[in-house]
Design a protein that fits this description.
five-stranded mixed beta sheet, D-Maltodextrin-Binding Protein, domain 2, alpha/beta, 13 strands, Double Stranded RNA Binding Domain
Length: about 350
């Protein structure tokens, strides 16, 4: 059930002095719509929110995290049937036998879900933020970023241990060019091959001996209740994460004031600031799945932000790093500046 989108076409307010009352009125109207929808819901048993997500175990776990956060923030959404989770199969889910770079790169795990959002079939979309392009479809916005989970990567190998303990010429399965480049930069002898599928599939292929090692995101493992499970957490120096890795994002329609009012209560400000810097860096690089890019921003607790980024050749033979420190309020500019420096340094990557 969806509230009527608000329109400002008839307003004649001009300048900053006129904009604040308008924004305040829009937010208040959004809250009123939430209240009206709650009253209707009590007698109808229809969902107040339809949440779209991929259908993988991890995606569904993340959708439940968002649902639970909304229920905690809003009593109106605490009922068992208040939020309906709708799995949507994406192109990235359908095509499992080819590397992502061959079938389109970024957007493969979001396009069908975003179309459902634009069409009004769902009210919000839940994504792993690292899978989202930096430019969103017209009319859609990032409504919230939940508190970020640990962004580091975990190495699983048949013999255990870290990167340096892998046997000479070990076969490492990964679909990530970032992981491939960083592994080869450290260990040029490794044999890197594509390995796709969900967490369980990749670990099963490791156990079956199809590969000697693989790398998975710690955030996903924790959300699935697995922990490291015998794997080795890699340091940030060994394996800098992908931009926005570990962050769950909630996408919504820009004109849906009802949903905006709901999502404002679950947005984690510190995480939003950090991923803003990382995605600004990624945007400056025009990053895609064809370019190995890593980046991580960390708030220092005193109003400052530390951003680390890198780009590399896919074979790991060259790697360029950058660091920026500055006020957290300047996150977007810090990220853009870092990205522009990396683009100049690794110009051969962007020809």
């Amino acid at each position: 059930m969806q509230g009527k989108p608000l329109s400002h076409k008839d307003t004649k307010s001009k300048g900053k002095r006129g904009q604040w009352p308008l924004r305040k009125a829009s937010w208040c109207l959004g809250v009123l719509v939430v209240f009206k929808e709650t009253v209707k819901h009590k007698g109808m048993g229809e969902p107040l929110l339809r949440l779209g997500t991929r259908g993988s175990p991890l995606a569904l776990a993340q959708a439940r995290i968002v649902r639970d956060a909304l229920a905690k923030a809003h009593a109106s959404l605490a009922a068992a049937d208040a939020v309906e989770i709708l799995p949507i199969r994406t192109t990235g889910d359908k095509v499992q036998d080819r590397p992502l770079v061959e079938i389109g790169g970024k957007g493969l795990f979001t396009e069908e879900i975003e179309q459902a959002l634009s069409d009004g079939r769902i009210d919000i979309a839940v994504h792993s933020l690292k899978d989202m392009p930096t430019i969103l479809p017209p009319g859609l916005v990032l409504g919230a970023v939940l508190e970020r989970e640990d962004p580091r990567d975990v190495l699983f190998s048949r013999g255990g241990g870290g990167i340096d303990t892998l046997p000479k010429g070990a076969r490492v399965g990964t679909a990530s060019l970032r992981r491939q480049a960083l592994l080869l930069n450290r260990r040029p002898d490794l044999q890197i091959g594509p390995l796709r599928g969900n967490v369980e599939t990749r670990l099963r292929k490791l156990q079956e001996g199809q590969v000697d090692a693989t790398v998975l995101a710690l955030a996903g493992l924790k959300r699935l209740g697995r922990g490291t499970g015998g794997g080795t957490i890699l340091t940030l120096d060994d394996m800098l994460p992908a931009p926005a890795q570990g962050a769950i994002s909630v996408e919504s329609r820009a004109d849906d004031a009802r949903v905006a009012a709901l999502l404002s209560k679950i947005d984690h400000k510190q995480s939003s600031v950090a991923v803003t810097a990382e995605r600004a860096m990624l945007a400056a690089l025009d990053g895609s799945c064809r370019t190995p890019i890593a980046g991580l921003a960390v708030l220092d607790g005193c109003g400052g932000l530390h951003l680390r980024g890198l780009v590399a050749l896919p074979d790991g033979s060259k790697l360029w790093r950058v660091e920026r420190r500055g006020p957290a309020g300047d996150a977007e500019n810090l990220g853009r500046d870092a990205g522009e420096e990396l683009r100049r340094a690794g110009a051969e990557l962007f020809k």
